[in-house]
Design brief:
Number of helices: 1
Radius of gyration: 38 Å
Order of helices and strands: EEEEEEEEEEHEE
Number of strands: 12
Strand order of the largest sheet: 2-1-5-6
Length: 175
């Protein structure tokens, strides 16, 4: 369910739970605010357009924060006239959180039903193992390297023997 409201000379499309930054309104933080300038209300396929306002349309919100926006710098400059003017402006704003949307003839959507967790006694432990598709082999088990048992085996692994064309052997030690 959503609505289009008008406030501060602007129009906003709002839905329940949304937070919007609007022009400053005189309200304390945490106070509830009603917007009566509702231009459109929609819930699923049910759409109600006002002419210009929706009859019985009302959007409620709570004020989250009041503050000032970032500074906007204004610079006016005319070349060769020795004229430069700098100004700045910080706009006030209000952040509101939409809590409800109401209109005549439009029902709010039902609240979603939360699923309850299953009973601990009814839970079953299911372990899935070895499911293979047709023609796909399982990955091979990784082979663990075992350290050599003696120093003699280590020396034997480090020696490399090459045979030359004249059938003489050359032995390398180390790397």
């Amino acid at each position: 369910m959503y609505a289009v409201i008008q406030t501060g000379g602007k129009q906003y499309k709002v839905a329940q739970g949304d937070i919007h930054r609007i022009e400053k309104i005189p309200a304390e933080v945490g106070a509830s605010v009603d917007f009566n300038n509702v231009l459109l209300v929609a819930s699923g396929d049910n759409l109600k357009i006002g002419g210009p306002l929706v009859d019985g349309g009302k959007v409620t919100a709570t004020v989250e924060t009041q503050g000032r926006d970032k500074k906007v710098k204004i610079i006016k400059f005319k070349r060769r006239k020795h004229h430069r003017k700098q100004m700045g402006h910080r706009q006030y704003y209000t952040d509101v959180k939409i809590t409800g949307i109401m209109a005549d003839g439009i029902e709010p959507p039902p609240e979603p039903v939360k699923a309850t967790p299953p009973d601990s006694e009814a839970e079953t432990d299911v372990k899935i193992t070895g499911i293979m598709a047709d023609g796909i082999e399982p990955p091979p088990e990784p082979v663990k390297a075992t350290p050599p048992d003696s120093e003699a085996e280590t020396v034997a692994e480090n020696k490399k023997t090459e045979t030359k064309a004249d059938n003489t052997e050359v032995t390398q030690h180390g790397t």
